[in-house]
């Protein structure tokens, strides 16, 4: 990540003036020269200030927020709000994406359009990436085990449906479990950054693009098969399909094989 410094203006040295009545050079201190001296000091002060680009600021904040890096560890509320504030300020141009880019175009193939993954950074403590969805693009229902995830919709309109597990609920089979709907709404950028947690906040979610969309994701810690943080995909079925009783806010989630 790079930082830049801003330096403006040109510094000119004061010149000594010669006494018209003799050959002895004298230095006269005028208001103009004093102003130039003050200007030089201001330029020197400005040159020491650095402008941190938004992606660098995001990276630095993530290092602080996810310093622990352990599975299931939720950052403090102060750190959560700090990272949310940084993400809320990020614009598409800050990360170099635009709806005019080729992977946001729909192609008439008769199948669901491809979703493009853009990698920004990853380590064992956190990862930063962008998902690019053309209109009607879908990221299927999936989970985020032992992870805290920040999602920032950079542009477009997207439907998000998310679930949390229902604690101590009966399981019809080893790969089926009861879940409750957390979110089932359309979101249009600009909007607030959404956050999900290891055990609540809509840990399983599905994205469906209504228009071309870009989503900036921060995952802490990221997926890791060796660490047991596998990405699992699910089918969702209305609870009534199993119980005969209609509860719109509940579904049975079955692991997709």
List low-confidence stretches: 1-32
Please compute the radius of gyration using only Cα atoms.
28 Å
Averaged pLDDT: 82
Strand residue percentage:
25-35%
Rough outline:
globular
N-to-C order of helices and strands? EEEHEHHEEEEEEEEEEHE
Tell me the number of helical segments per DSSP (H or I, 4 or more residues long). 4
Lateral strand order in the biggest sheet: 7-12-9-10-15-14
The portion of residues assigned to helices is 10-25%
How would you characterize the largest beta sheet? 6 strands, antiparallel
Structural class: alpha+beta
- Oligomeric state, counting identical vs distinct chains: single chain
Number of DSSP strands? 15
Distance between the termini: 40 Å
What would your notes on this structure say?
- With 257 residues, this protein is of the alpha+beta class.
- It has helices at residues 31-48, 54-65, 77-89, 240-243; strands spanning 3-5, 17-18, 25-26, 50-52, 116-122, 127-133, 138-142, 148-155, 157-165, 176-188, 194-196, 204-209, 213-220, 234-238, 250-255.
- Strands 7-12-9-10-15-14 form a 6-stranded antiparallel β-sheet.
- It is globular and about 80 Å long.
Annotation keywords:
about 260 residues; 6-stranded antiparallel β-sheet; 4 helices; single chain; alpha+beta; disordered N terminus
């Amino acid at each position: 990540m790079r930082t830049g410094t801003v330096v403006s203006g040109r510094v000119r040295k004061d010149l000594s003036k010669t006494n018209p009545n003799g050959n002895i050079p004298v230095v006269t201190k005028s208001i103009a020269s004093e102003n130039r001296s003050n200007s030089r000091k201001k330029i020197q002060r400005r040159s020491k200030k650095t402008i941190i680009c938004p992606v660098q600021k995001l990276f630095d904040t993530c290092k602080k927020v996810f310093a622990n890096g352990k599975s299931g560890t939720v950052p403090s509320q102060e750190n959560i709000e700090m990272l949310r504030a940084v993400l809320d300020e990020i614009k598409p141009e800050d990360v170099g994406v635009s709806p005019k880019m080729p992977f946001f175009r729909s192609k008439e193939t008769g199948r669901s359009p491809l979703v493009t993954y853009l990698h920004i950074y990853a380590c064992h403590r956190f990862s930063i990436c962008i998902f690019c969805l053309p209109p009607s693009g879908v990221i299927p229902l999936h989970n985020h085990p032992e992870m805290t995830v920040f999602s920032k919709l950079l542009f477009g309109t997207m439907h998000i449906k998310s679930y949390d597990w229902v604690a101590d609920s009966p399981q019809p089979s080893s790969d089926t479990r009861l879940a409750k709907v957390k979110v089932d709404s359309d979101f249009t950028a600009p909007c607030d950054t959404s956050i999900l947690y290891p055990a609540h906040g809509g840990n399983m979610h599905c994205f469906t693009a209504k228009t071309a969309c870009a989503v900036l994701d921060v995952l802490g810690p990221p997926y890791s098969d060796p660490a047991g943080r596998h990405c699992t995909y699910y089918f969702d079925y209305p609870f009534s399909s199993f119980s005969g009783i209609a509860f719109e806010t509940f579904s049975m989630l079955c692991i997709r094989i």
